[in-house]
């Protein structure tokens, strides 16, 4: 969205987005390498779009398109709420990264990103890593999230998890009067790159942590490093457990009607994108007295980290910016109370306000006008 157009429904309105409101969608195919990718630029109202590249075995191209539209819209709101001068974009590569990912494919993808002339900066996401971004960067100038050896910020999951923890602390203060999870039971669904770091923050804070993951290797790694963590067999068992906080940290759509019905947690705060399975779930959570910390608010630490790389990366500076997620979460919760709306709606309003007020000064971002 730009300042010249009305705001589209926010990312918390549901995961079933359409292309309406997106500035640009690019389909990328390279037959020699097997590359099939989609790049979606939702908004450059605040600056060039920045968002990671997801490498995932979608069942069909239509599924990949739906995902990249949802994710890119969420990135616009995430950047706006984080106070960054960046827009929202995302890319997906269709296929199993374990079998399809090659240097040639990543470099071919880099050439497509380069062809956009800086309107979209890419970074890591599910299925891609900093080492992959180094390969993309051999063909492209618009890459963040690179390895430290190549002047980058490294793994963005570090500050993603840190930001989720800050949002969880703010939610705990609103719910129980103190910004700590000490003595609380937190259930984490998904202990991959982000969830694993989040477990460490919570254990260090004195929380009891219960986890599940479809990847047995991820569970084994957590249990080896932190034997105090309890493992349950699946997400159904986790959400039915006695929890104070539920943290969805895998893929989107985690908050369904069935999950909300059985959830005992007083807080939902996790790293997954697009957690609300459909429009109206945010109201169901509110009606049940469950405080929902909007996903794109609390998981913006990774975006903050890779965005800082564009200035010449300083971990201390990026961490200080990610720490402010605590204050922004309080602002969202306060606005929700004042206006009598769910926090998801309040977060959308704050993000849209910034895109509207700043974006109207800029319009569509072009490299020559930066």
The secondary structure category is alpha/beta
The third-level CATH topology of the largest domain is Rossmann fold
The biggest sheet, with number of strands, parallel, antiparallel or mixed sense and barrel status, is: 6 strands, parallel
Distance between the termini: 18 Å
Describe the protein's architecture and organization.
This protein has 370 residues and is α/β, with parallel strands linked by helices. The chain has two domains: 123 residues, Leucine Dehydrogenase, chain A, domain 1 (Rossmann fold, 3-Layer(aba) Sandwich); 194 residues, 3-Layer(aba) Sandwich (Rossmann fold). Helices cover 43% and strands 15% of the residues. It is built from 15 helices and eleven strands. The strands form two sheets. Strands 8-7-6-9-10-11 form a six-stranded parallel sheet, with helices on both faces. A five-stranded mixed sheet has the order 1-2-4-3-5, sandwiched between helices. It is globular. The N terminus is likely disordered. This is Glu/Leu/Phe/Val dehydrogenase. InterPro entries: Aminoacid_DH-like_N_sf, Glu/Leu/Phe/Val/Trp_DH, Glu/Leu/Phe/Val/Trp_DH_C, Glu/Leu/Phe/Val/Trp_DH_dimer, Glu/Leu/Phe/Val_DH_AS, Glu/Phe/Leu/Val/Trp_DH_bac/arc, NAD(P)-bd_dom_sf. It comes from Nocardioides iriomotensis.
